[in-house]
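We close this part of the discussion by returning to an individual protein. Part of our work consisted of pairing the sequence of a single chain with a tokenised description of its backbone. The amino acid sequence and the backbone structure tokens for this protein are reproduced below.
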Amino acid sequence: MSGNQKIRTPVTIYGQHYIITGTETSAHVKKVARLVDEKMYEIRSANPNLDTSKLAVLTAVNAVHDYIKLHERFEHLEKELERLKE
């Protein structure tokens, strides 16, 4: 499949059905949706009184936090690799 062809993938996140359209494979989109769904239920179990929009924001904050930590680790490892090459 070419990188420009749009793929429509049906997913369910926190009981809501969505059609995600993009260039990633359906398997990738389903994996992302499953992880978001799991994180929402995890946060909800710790905070049962959250409304859905606050739950969604906390899920996004958690995802961005994880992304930043991984990006910082990646940058650190790249610098370490460059140092070792010298």
